[in-house]
């Protein structure tokens, strides 16, 4: 039984294997147009190292707020040391495999491969964010290439495939480490699961475990057969399945009852609203008529689906299966209990036979002892007594032999019955598994049918609703009213003429007519001298026209305002409305302008007090406009165009600027980031991935506008923001911001954008330059300079790997640092003028951030880690360079940190420095040179 338990334990552990080497790499290419630039996938959230080694399989919303960085600063050196070991192991593997003259290459290659995989496993266990599908797929491909390599013959095809596998794993690993250090991990490739399959596989793992289908039916039976109480556990599980089927039936029946009730409710709504909603010539009456028909169709479909599930595909099949399952389970249980009872009876008989045997043997020993004693005492006893003792001994011996035979028979029976029980156990376990499989199959079929029917019932709803939505967008306000008026077909109203009729006393009718005409004649009386004027005359003419149609005119202003004030102020009110409408003038307002008097009368006010700010009019008056959208003079879009905000086409409900002709969806006005330039907006500019010289050539100072725009906004709002440039932004917002820069160029409005999004855009632009600001040709010189500054000799002549701290102490600065600064300054003189200006601009900005380290927690070293790979990188030529660039991370950071700390000394001219500082610096350099010469002489003497 202990062995059986060990077998269960060993089988319960599943070994994780690498993905198939046939998989293909799929690097994120979002916004990347340059193949040499590293990919820059931006993620809305990252894991922290302290989150444990288990990675959550649930992907967050792309609009989640910014979170913590992926790796702590103090962990970076240890990670880089592991990366350096990995690079050396890969290089050694490459040398061993490709060295033709070396013998016994296969075992050596396998040993080197094991070292590579061991380091890879170690770094993945320490940093789970590196556990991506690309890395593991590349590792699987490398394993297959090393194992399948023909070491005996020189095969060029094998060499090419092996070199490609080396390059693949180097690029994948270096990209993942780079993204981890930059805080830009893309979760779509985590967990070694393809993004499209992640959700489905995670659900399967959570439901069935990670080792679905790894054990066969025979293995399951063997495990239960060797386990104590295995059959009872199987029977208990079978009983639980029966109850589970009952619970499933109850769940679906309750849900079907709700569906039927909902279906009946839809039918009642259809009957009650059919006549009221579908009146002709009402707005959207055809839309709601179609919606009602769809509701009726949905109701009938739900009723039919409920009937099908109840009687054919779910409830009835499961009920029948439950009954059959219970029947078979009880039969199997009875067989098992019967076999167990037989064994228990045999064991009880065995125990009784054993007890009788022990008793008979004890009696026999006593009788034999008594007989022997009687023989020894024969001189003093009679022969009759001895014979009696011997007879008793013989009887006891016979009983003992009989008890022994019975005992042995019971043992044989128990063994036989136990064997029969074992055979019965195998049969019972097989039968139980068969019953469970049949029930599983029935549940599976019923579940598939259930959700297939539910899918068929609901799959058409999104299409229907989308159709109704798009059809509703096509409706033009007032359209149905116009059709209603058109269908009235009424005759024209006859003209009514009012003429003056002279007084005649002879007719009563004439007096009555005269009395009725007094009210009208009062309006036609000649004006007084104080009331003469064009405005008064036009007002009385308008009043007369209103009276001629039998309507009464009502004043729309308050009782405390005089009529002449309101009439006279009408034009001013109209002008105020257009001035404060934030550019939302439309063709409707052109028509309003032609009738200024009516507009002035309809100006709203409350209790006779006119408002100071008039609500904007036009088609976009109810839209919340962004800050940039408020700078445009908007009108309705007149022809289909491409939205400059979301980069999709606008057909209906679009806005267009009258000055710059920017087109935008109505819904995109709330997030529009492009301001009006008061001239026609140019076409889209290819900005990201574009050569630096082309972009810098459009700026008078040589600094690309996107760098100045992003840095200016960050300095205005986020110099003290904690984790600026380290905390990641939101992917969707960053992509929209990049798109806005390509569409609007300098006109992008950043005041409403998150500083972390802006910092991501800046890093993205720098990383996707085909050649970094510090060109490829200077990379080796820069790295050599950084290595010399970090390779400080210890007291025993060994390199410590840590140079002096970068601190600017003025005249008291370490001579080694002063030498580093001078050499770096001379090296930067080789940069083109735009590169120098841009690098100076970025370094000055980073120095301002570092000066506020207490608030933003961004020291020069932290900024160096972030901006090192963005400002410099080696020329991409192969796998070795990809890994070496990772190893160069500390040196890249050292260069950027030097630029920040010694910004005045590197970028300011010598004339701007104090004379004392220059002389002190020169003296320090001379001392440093003398010390270096002495050290070299000592080393030569030692040699």
Automatic annotation (TrEMBL):
CC annotations in GO: cytosol; membrane
Pfam families: C1_1, GMIP-like_FCH, RHG29_45_N, RhoGAP
Domain F-BAR: 218-480
Start and end residues of each Rho-GAP domain: 690-907
InterPro entries, per the entry: AH/BAR_dom_sf, C1-like_sf, F_BAR_dom, FCH_dom, GMIP/FCHO2-like_FCH, PKC_DAG/PE, RHG29_45_N, Rho_GTPase_activation_prot
Region Disordered: start-end pairs: 1-35, 369-400, 511-604
CDD domains recorded: C1_GMIP-like
Gene Ontology molecular-function annotations: GTPase activator activity; zinc ion binding
Boundaries of every Phorbol-ester/DAG-type domain copy: 631-676
GO process terms (BP): regulation of small GTPase mediated signal transduction; signal transduction
UniProt entry keywords in alphabetical sequence: Coiled coil, GTPase activation, Metal-binding, Zinc, Zinc-finger
Biased composition (Polar residues): 577-588
Compositionally biased residues, Low complexity: 9-21, 511-525
Biased composition range(s): Basic and acidic residues: 390-400
Protein name: Rho GTPase activating protein 45
Organism: Cyprinus carpio
Top-level taxonomy: Eukaryota, Metazoa, Chordata, Craniata, Vertebrata
């Amino acid at each position: 039984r202990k062995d059986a338990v060990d077998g269960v334990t060993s089988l319960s552990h599943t070994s994780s294997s690498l993905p198939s080497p046939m998989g293909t790499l799929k690097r994120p290419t979002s916004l990347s147009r340059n193949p040499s630039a590293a990919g820059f996938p931006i993620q809305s959230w990252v894991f922290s190292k302290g989150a444990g080694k288990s990675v959550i399989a649930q992907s967050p919303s792309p609009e989640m707020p910014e979170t913590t960085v992926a790796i702590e600063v103090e962990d970076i050196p240890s990670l880089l040391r592991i990366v350096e070991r990995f690079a050396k192991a890969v290089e050694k593997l490459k040398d061993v495999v490709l060295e033709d003259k070396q013998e016994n290459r296969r075992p050596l290659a396998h040993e080197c491969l094991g070292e590579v995989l061991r380091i890879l496993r170690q770094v993945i266990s320490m940093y789970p964010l590196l556990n991506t599908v690309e890395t593991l797929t590349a590792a699987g491909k490398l394993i297959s290439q090393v194992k399948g390599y023909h070491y005996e013959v020189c095969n060029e095809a094998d060499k090419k495939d092996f070199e490609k596998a080396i390059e693949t794993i180097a690029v994948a690993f270096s990209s993942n480490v780079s993204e981890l250090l930059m805080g830009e991990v893309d979760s779509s490739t985590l967990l070694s699961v393809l993004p499209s399959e992640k959700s489905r596989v995670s659900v399967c793992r959570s439901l069935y475990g990670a080792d679905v289908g790894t054990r066969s039916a025979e293995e399951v039976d063997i495990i239960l057969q060797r386990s104590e109480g295995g059959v009872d556990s199987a029977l208990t599980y079978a009983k639980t399945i029966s109850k589970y089927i009952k619970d499933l039936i109850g769940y679906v029946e309750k849900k079907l009852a709700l569906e039927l009730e909902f279906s009946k409710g839809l039918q009642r709504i259809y009957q009650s609203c059919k006549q009221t909603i579908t009146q002709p010539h009402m707005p959207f009456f055809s839309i709601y008529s179609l919606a009602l028909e769809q509701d009726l169709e949905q109701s009938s479909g739900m009723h039919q689906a409920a009937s099908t599930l109840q009687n054919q595909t779910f409830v009835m099949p499961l009920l029948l299966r439950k009954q059959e399952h219970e029947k078979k389970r009880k039969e199997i249980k009875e067989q098992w209990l019967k076999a167990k009872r037989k064994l228990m009876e045999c064991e009880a008989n065995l125990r009784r036979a054993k007890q009788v045997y022990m008793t008979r043997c004890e009696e026999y020993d006593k009788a034999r002892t008594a007989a022997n004693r009687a023989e020894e005492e024969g001189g003093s006893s009679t022969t009759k007594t001895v014979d009696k003792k011997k007879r008793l001994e013989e009887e006891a011996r016979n009983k003992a032999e009989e008890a022994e035979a019975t005992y042995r028979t019971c043992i044989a029976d128990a063994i036989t019955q136990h064997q029969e029980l074992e055979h019965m156990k195998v049969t019972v376990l097989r039968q139980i598994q068969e019953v469970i499989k049949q029930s599983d199959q029935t549940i599976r079929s019923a579940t598939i049918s259930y959700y297939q029917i539910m899918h068929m019932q609901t799959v058409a709803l999104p299409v229907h609703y989308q159709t109704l939505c798009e059809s509703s967008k096509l409706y033009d306000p007032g359209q149905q009213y116009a059709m209603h008026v058109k269908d009235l077909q009424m005759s024209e109203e006859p003209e009514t003429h009012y003429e003056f009729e002279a007084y005649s006393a002879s007719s009563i009718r004439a007096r009555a007519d005269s009395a009725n005409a007094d009210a009208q004649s009062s309006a036609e009386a000649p004006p007084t001298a104080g009331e003469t004027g064009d405005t008064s005359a036009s007002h009385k003419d308008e009043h007369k026209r209103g009276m001629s149609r039998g309507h009464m005119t009502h004043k729309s202003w308050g009782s405390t305002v005089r009529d002449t004030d309101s009439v006279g102020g009408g034009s001013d009110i109209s002008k105020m409305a257009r001035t404060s409408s934030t550019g939302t003038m439309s063709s409707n307002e052109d028509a309003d302008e032609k009738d200024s008097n009516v507009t002035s009368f309809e100006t709203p006010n409350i209790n006779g007090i006119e408002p100071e700010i008039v609500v904007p009019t036009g088609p976009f008056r109810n839209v919340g406009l962004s800050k940039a959208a408020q700078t445009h003079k908007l009108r309705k879009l007149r022809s289909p165009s491409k939205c400059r905000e979301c980069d999709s086409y606008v057909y209906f409900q679009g806005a267009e600027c009258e000055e710059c002709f920017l087109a935008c969806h109505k819904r995109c006005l709330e997030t529009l980031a492009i301001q009006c330039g008061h001239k026609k907006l140019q076409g889209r500019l290819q900005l990201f991935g574009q050569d630096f010289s082309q972009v810098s050539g459009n700026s008078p100072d040589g600094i690309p506008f996107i760098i100045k725009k992003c840095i200016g906004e960050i300095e205005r709002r986020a110099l003290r923001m904690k984790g600026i440039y380290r905390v990641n932004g939101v992917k969707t917002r960053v992509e929209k911001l990049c798109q806005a820069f390509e569409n609007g160029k300098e006109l992008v409005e950043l005041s409403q954008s998150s500083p972390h999004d802006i910092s991501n855009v800046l890093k993205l632009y720098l990383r996707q330059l085909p050649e970094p600001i510090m060109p490829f040709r200077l990379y080796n010189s820069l790295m050599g300079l950084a290595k010399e500054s970090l390779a400080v000799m210890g007291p025993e002549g060994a390199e410590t790997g840590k140079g002096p701290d970068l601190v600017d102490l003025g005249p008291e600065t370490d001579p080694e640092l002063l030498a580093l600064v001078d050499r770096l300054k001379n090296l930067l003189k080789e940069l083109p003028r735009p590169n120098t200006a841009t690098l100076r601009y970025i370094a000055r900005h980073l120095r301002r951030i570092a000066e506020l380290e207490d608030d933003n927690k961004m020291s020069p070293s932290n900024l160096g880690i972030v901006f090192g790979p963005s400002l410099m990188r080696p020329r991409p030529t192969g796998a070795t360079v990809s890994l070496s660039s990772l190893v160069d991370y500390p040196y890249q950071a050292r260069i950027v940190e030097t630029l920040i700390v010694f910004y005045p000394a590197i970028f300011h001219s010598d004339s701007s420095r104090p004379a004392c500082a220059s002389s002190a610096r020169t003296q320090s350099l001379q001392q440093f040179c003398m010390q270096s010469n002495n050290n070299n002489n000592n080393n030569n003497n030692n040699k």
